[in-house]
Design goal:
With about 600 residues, the chain is mainly alpha-helical. The chain is built from 32 helices and two strands.
Length: about 600
């Protein structure tokens, strides 16, 4: 839980809250939870995290209405606050309420969860989907499927199809999707994607419902297929799609196309800037992503993310953005300690990988794998563990993790994730043939994956097939253009140079990849200069000072100098002349 961060500044304006002395007024008609609880959580003003639950418990005893109490309990659960006593009181007062029993289960402490689940099951006759979702929240994937077996209500049939898809039981899923008729069109598209891959969707009949187009748009956004997402979004709107879901899809597409200012404008037009505490978690995620892409003040972004996580303490997407914002704003010593979230450790492990701590990441994932979890999550964890082990220089262990992942990768997108890591492993082992074989299904079934084509460029280049490398570069450039375009980078220049056939950087890189180079000092016996040069563009943070201190500890007596674009240009001009300085100035990403 991200509850310990200090009080933030709101992105557009502070949420309005009552004076501290009125923090827990009796509000019997509205459930006992203060109307401005979200604002107080946002501002970091809830010192006693049990007080809202006590207020709600008192309100139940004083005669508060069912709907108000239910809303209050859900607010407490969303914020990760203690509401078990209030939930027990509400359950006793409304013994026939399935909804009250369900939220009571969510709020139950570990020692009481089994009894709360039994109580919910006793009230759920004819409501199999409610009980199944409770099992899912308790990490009981198999139990959820068992509860749904034989159920006939539409909600249960739909959930049963969703779980069958996740388990790779495509035949059972197809039967339930057929039972749903037009209401199952979106799940039909998901079936094709999970079973056959994203490319197979192009061969399917066009959806007839707004829900079908919405699913195609969501799949394209997840695959980072900007052209496909834009086409599906247009069709979705034409089929009657509107409202918040469409607006969020437009903002996500703007971010995918490297248009963060446009995405931010779309969000600002729809959201109340004076009350960010009332925004949905998904909107905070989009706002923070836009802010990171725009280079907003990292401390303000960190404060916003921490405040949003206090209001929506259980939202995994917000937690991921909170970690990204901390990385931009915090000292490394602070970032090294992160509590595990509800996503099974994936966000924490990815955080450690970004910090260059693969051992920590692998340990987090190993602990998460011991806890079980849903099938899709386990396959994703094995892929992430393989990546961590490879980054840590353990290719044999990474290969074992990939094999374990393939055993539980029951859907095509997760197999593609594992294949991409296998391609990296093949490069590490200088075995381009194995890497190309691993990636062939990904190129066929998931051709819009951002990591695919750059990896194919490296594999073809290592294998000496420069024409294939150039073709992969061109495919990558086409996808980049759909995502807003990108200037030529080092890969383009290296392949183009190698294709010329003359001695140069491209030929040298090919020889190095093939381990044909033996390094000889330019001046025999010469010492390495005792200087370390750093290059950094963007906002400064405590992390940079921490990095320089670490370099100083590792290389005692070495001088350090940090260059930015301006100072580096001046140094190159002074040392090597104006011509090379001009070439440096033309580089789109000098740090690479």
């Amino acid at each position: 839980m991200v509850g310990g961060e200090g009080g933030p500044s709101a992105p557009l304006g502070a949420c309005r809250a009552s004076p501290p002395e009125d923090i827990f007024p009796q509000m019997m008609g509205r459930g006992g939870v203060p109307e401005d609880l979200a604002a107080r959580l946002w501002a970091g003003q809830v010192a006693d995290r049990a007080a809202p639950g006590r207020a709600l418990c008192d309100a139940v005893g004083a005669g508060a209405r069912h709907g108000a109490v239910l809303a209050g309990l859900r607010t407490l659960w969303r914020a990760g606050l203690d509401g078990w006593a209030a939930a027990q009181a509400a359950r006793r007062r409304w013994p026939g309420s399935v909804a009250m029993a369900a939220v009571a289960f969510d709020l139950a402490p570990e020692a009481a969860r089994a009894a709360a689940l039994e109580d919910l099951a006793a009230r759920c006759e004819g409501r199999a989907a409610v009980l199944a979702r409770a099992h899912l929240r308790a990490a009981g994937f198999g139990a959820a499927r068992a509860v749904l077996a034989g159920a006939e209500e539409a909600e249960a049939v739909r959930l049963r199809a969703v779980l069958a898809l996740e388990a790779g039981d495509f035949e059972a899923a197809a039967e339930d999707i057929a039972r749903l008729g037009a209401a199952g069109e979106a799940l039909g598209a998901r079936l094709v994607w999970l079973r056959d891959g994203a490319a197979a969707l192009a061969g399917c009949a066009a959806p007839e419902t707004a829900g079908g187009w919405a699913e195609l748009c969501a799949i394209a956004l997840q695959e980072r297929d900007a052209a496909g997402a834009e086409a599906a979004l247009r069709a979705w709107v034409c089929a009657g799609g509107s409202g918040t879901a469409c607006a969020r899809a437009r903002a996500r597409l703007g971010l995918l196309r490297r248009e963060p200012a446009a995405a931010r404008d779309l969000l600002a037009a729809r959201l109340d800037g004076g009350a960010p505490c009332d925004w949905a978690a998904a909107d905070h995620v989009l706002w923070l992503r836009a802010g990171l892409d725009l280079g907003d003040d990292p401390q303000a972004l960190r404060a916003h993310a921490a405040a949003a996580c206090r209001v929506d303490a259980r939202h995994d997407g917000l937690r991921h953005l909170w970690l990204l914002c901390r990385e931009a704003a915090c000292d490394w010593g602070e970032m090294a300690s992160v509590p595990r979230g509800s996503d099974g450790g994936r966000a924490q492990a990815a955080h450690f990988l970004r910090l260059g701590l693969p051992g920590r990441a692998a340990g987090v994932i190993a602990a998460a794998l011991r806890c079980g979890g849903r099938p899709g999550a386990r396959a994703a964890l094995w892929a992430l563990r393989a990546e961590a082990l490879l980054q840590g220089g353990r290719p044999g262990a990474a290969a074992v993790a990939l094999a374990r992942g393939r055993a539980v990768a029951w859907v095509a997108p997760r197999r593609a994730d594992l294949a991409l890591v296998a391609g990296d492993l093949a490069l590490w082992r200088c075995d381009p043939a194995a890497g190309l074989a691993a990636l062939a299904p990904v190129a066929r079934d998931f051709p819009a994956r951002p990591a695919l084509w750059p990896l194919l460029v490296r594999l073809h280049f290592t294998a000496g097939d420069l024409k294939a490398a150039q073709a992969a570069l061109e495919r990558h450039a086409d996808l980049q253009a759909a995502r807003g375009g990108a200037a030529p980078d080092l890969r383009d220049l290296m392949v183009a140079d190698a294709l010329q056939g003359a001695d140069g950087p491209g030929a040298a890189a090919m020889a190095l990849a093939a381990a044909q180079v033996r390094f000889v000092p330019a001046v025999p016996g010469a010492d390495i200069p005792r200087r370390v040069a750093h290059y950094w563009e963007g906002a400064q943070s405590p992390a940079q000072a921490r990095a320089r201190a670490r370099w100083a500890a590792l290389h005692t007596g070495f001088a350090q100098r940090v260059f930015d674009a301006e100072s580096a240009h001046a140094w190159i001009a002074a040392q090597e002349g104006a011509k090379l300085a001009e070439r440096f100035a033309a580089l789109p990403r000098p740090a690479l």
